Amino acid sequence: MKKKASELKILLLQIRDDKETMMEELYEFVQYSGLKEEQFTVLNTFITQDFSPDIINSYDALFIGGSSDASVLKPEEFVFLADCRLLLRNCYNLDIPVFASCFGFQLLVQELEGEVVVDAEHMEMGTYAMQLTDAARNDPLFHDVPNNFHAVSGHKERADKLPVEAINLVSTQDCPYHAIKIKDKPIYGFQFHPEIDTKDLIARLTRYQSLYLEGAEAVEKIIQNLNPDTSVSNGLVKKFIERIACA
Asked: What 3-state DSSP class applies to 88?
């Protein structure tokens, strides 16, 4: 039975080891989804490393955020990755809507037998113009999105091979797979960050500059080249609620 947006219960899977960024990410999803904070339940893998995939049975959708603290390519170090993937598989089997951003995108690609690689040479950090594929024109989420919309992107790892069930919807010059839908499933993955705007990106760049950049000068250069308007990208979160989670 269809639910109103105000009736939804969302499980937010966070892969964050920093309290300030944890709270920022939650508020970003709350803000751009149009939901209330109490509709989200946070499961942070750095706090709860073992959990059952059946936890999703109490929720209407799964959201997964990004991470500057873990890598999907290091399962021996980040032991919670196995349970994260089982959770995604359970959503897939039960047709539970999934909104997977950045790290979540990579996790989704891996679980459905695609490939993720380190590609520091083509690292993205800033705002980028997103190009729609032909498939996006018939997609429930992207059909009315303008081409070359700007979005926040920050990653050294990317999908190199998509799962056979994945429909590629968005790309950039340096990253061929930026948004996907899983065929016949209410599941979307975004290598870019629909939940982040330029204001929050600047805060995060400053906080994590030692992980991605070489000093304050590099941060300032990125800030000067940011496109301030990420509203189309940010609007995808609410569209997902209205068109996918409530469908």
From this structure: helix
Check 150, 155, 178, 193 and give the catalytic one: 193
Note the pLDDT tens digit of each residue in 84-123: 999 999 999 999 999 999 999 999 999 999 999 999 899 9
Domain count, the chain: 1
Residue 1 burial (CB count, 10 A): 2
Residue 204 lies in a domain: no
Among 91, 102, 157, 178, which one carries the catalytic annotation?
102
Please report, for the domain that includes residue 79, its CATH number.
3.40.50.880
Q: Which residues constitute the domain of residue 154?
A: 5-196+231-245
* Residue 170 within a domain: yes
How much is the mean pLDDT over the chain? 95
What is the DSSP secondary structure assignment for residue 193, as one 8-state letter? B
Q: Does 193 qualify as catalytic in the annotation?
A: yes
24, 28, 157, 195: the active-site residue: 195
